[in-house]
Design a protein that fits this description.
Elements: E1 3-5, E2 12-14, H1 37-44, H2 60-67, E3 70-77, E4 91-93, E5 109-117, E6 123-126, H3 128-131, E7 136-140, E8 146-148, E9 150-155, E10 160-164, E11 186-191, E12 199-210, E13 226-229, E14 241-244, E15 249-257, E16 266-271, H4 272-285, E17 295-299, H5 302-308, E18 316-321, H6 326-330, E19 337-341, E20 344-345, H7 349-356, E21 364-371, E22 374-381, E23 399-402, E24 405-409, H8 412-418, E25 424-429, H9 433-436, E26 444-448, E27 451-452, H10 456-463, E28 468-475, E29 481-488
Amino acid sequence: MKRKIKQGLVVFTIALAGGLAALGISKLFNHDSSKSISEIQQTYSTSGLAVSSIPNIDFVEVSGKAINTVVNIKTTYGASVSEKKGSEDEQFFDPFEFFHDKGMSQGPQQASGSGVILTPDGYIATNNHVVENSSKIEVILNDKRTYIAEVIGTDPETDLALLKIEESDLPFLTFGNSDDVRIGEWVIAVGNPFNLTSTVTAGIVSAKGRNINLLRQNTEYAIENFIQTDAAVNPGNSGGALVNVRGELIGINTAIASETGSYSGYSFAVPVNIVKKILDDIKKYGEVKRAILGVRIQDITSELADKEGIKEYKGVFVPEVVEGSAADKAGIKKGDVILKINDIGVNSSSELQAEVSKYYPGQKVKLLINRNNSNKEVEVTLRSKDGKIEIETIIKPETKTILGATFENISRDEKIKLKIQNGVKIIKFSKSPLKDKGVPVGFIITAIDKKPVYSIKDIIAMLDDKKGSTLLDGIMPDGSKDAFAIRLE
């Protein structure tokens, strides 16, 4: 992933990271999978740290609490990262250069980042770009215990991901309220920059609601409403914690402003109120249930106000309403200015997007709009990307067909039941050399040629274009171990 650097401009680059580890499979903590992360926190959390004198505060107590809840994440990638070439008049910064072993031109690559423990039974928040495309994820606690993590789900639109390790009684950070964060208040950033574990830096909140047009380069529905701080954040901090002086999590550190890829004064974190909704959705549904208003939006500038006859520089301008969308059905029109959502004022596109992101398809919200310099309240029933008002709860697992066999990643419950740390299941055959050699439907491949298989990505990397003798180790449908030697032509 490369970001172009234009002369005279600061480029906002994601401090990329990644990794994997040995999954502690003993299910020591019997959690209720139906509960949201917020509900689990409320059940087990204790009150935040007392703050008696803000001007004289030190960070000893809050740092001691936070470092035990932030983990080091090491990821392994199946192949080397290809380099893109640009024209001679363009300069490129490749964030992967900070994490990959430059001496390895071929074979597995490794990277490093951070994560935050959210519940005592091992749910961990990190950035999507920390684990994206990785074949193996290792989580290392502050006390050096190491686990292989499972990716529960990811959301590129907010650059968030939810991981799970099998452990109990873990220390964790409780959620704060990022809406209450004030510019100028003290915060600390905790992470693993440059593989230096458990690093704490301090700073203040420099701004809120920052839109740096980073995620939107890759996805249409990106939500950028970052908390900006001057706490030093470097490559490897990605996915780490932004914590207030009460020891509450208020953001997930995601990006830095830099021309070099190292810290240059400002860093950016996803607000925890967005994190809560996104990760609770992933835990409950396996994906984010995103509500869409269905309008194009634009910040109000003096030029726009003059052109459209807008008297006050408040709200967000609507240059276009998508036909058939929630906004269209509610009567919102081109040229309207959205002032509030459920009594919460919005004065930028990023604030509007962040507020809408807190709701589900089918929920009703009240918008205060200004039309022809007259205020009006409109009720809108939000819809999904495909125009539905119902939430689909069926989670469709990822599948891939190779060599006539269709593969599916196995669930955490299956791993626990079979007492295995990894594997990919065959769920269907067409004409396949695996079927010809007696490999049954339901066989879980745990290793190919003695190399562990963690995901469908590993199956693709190991079997695609594979020729010659191949050994498949795994688990039969009845739970017994077996192996098959096949020859691929």
